[in-house]
Each structure stands twice: as structure tokens, then as C-alpha cells.
Design brief:
about 120 residues; mainly beta; 4-stranded antiparallel β-sheet; about 50% strand
């Protein structure tokens, strides 16, 4: 069974960088041809896809967030991470990591952007 667990601060100040990590067990993030994604859900809004890192380390981002988003990985720890820069209160959301091909997702972590 694949398990994903998000971790990171629950509160970030405006203009700072939000950093989250997804720890994966039960599958390797380098296994062909899986892709590992970050999505979020803001209050009163639907799910928003943010970006993905593939098994080979290649990345792709939502055009709406591309200028502020970076996804990286640590293969030695079987983790991948999200960085979202210049955050505003509109970035307040529950953030999830998932692996769509395997239909597994983390439980989500609430992040609030507030001074």
C-alpha cells in the first residue's frame, strides 16, 4: 500500500515562501512512469492542480502558478517538495500530494497565510 504524508508549517506570513514536503512509502518516486503531484483546495473553491514531478525528475507547473512554484525531490529520502513563493492570503488552502496513476493521496495539510 502506498502512503503519502504532507508536512510543513501551518502558518506562513504574506510575501514569504511556503514550503511543504511529501514523504512517500510503499512506492519509489523514481519508478517509471509515475508522476507525483501537488494540488490544493482553497476555502469555497474546487481542487487546483499546482504541478508535478515525474519519475525522471522532470517538472511541469500550472500556468497560473508557474512563476511562483517549484517542485523538487530527494530520492534518498523518497520525498518530493513544494515551494510557493510570494504567498498572499489567497494561497490559504489545504495542500495535498498525490500520485494519480496509483490513486493515492495524502490526507492534506492546512496552510494559512496571515500576518
Amino acid at each position: 500500500q502506498v502512503q503519502l504524508q504532507e508536512s510543513g508549517p501551518g502558518l506562513v506570513k504574506p510575501s514569504q515562501t511556503l514550503s511543504l514536503t511529501c514523504s512517500v512509502s510503499g512506492a519509489s518516486i523514481t519508478t517509471s512512469y509515475y508522476c507525483w503531484s501537488w494540488i490544493r483546495q482553497s476555502p469555497g473553491k474546487g481542487l487546483e492542480w499546482m504541478g508535478v514531478i515525474a519519475y525522471d525528475g522532470s517538472t511541469d507547473y500550472s500556468p497560473a502558478l508557474k512563476s511562483r512554484t517549484s517542485i523538487s525531490r530527494d530520492t534518498s529520502k523518497n520525498q518530493f517538495s513544494l515551494q510557493l513563493s510570494s504567498v498572499t492570503p489567497e494561497d490559504t488552502a489545504v495542500y495535498y500530494c498525490n500520485v494519480p496513476a496509483l490513486r493515492y493521496s495524502g490526507q492534506g495539510t492546512q496552510v494559512a497565510v496571515s500576518s
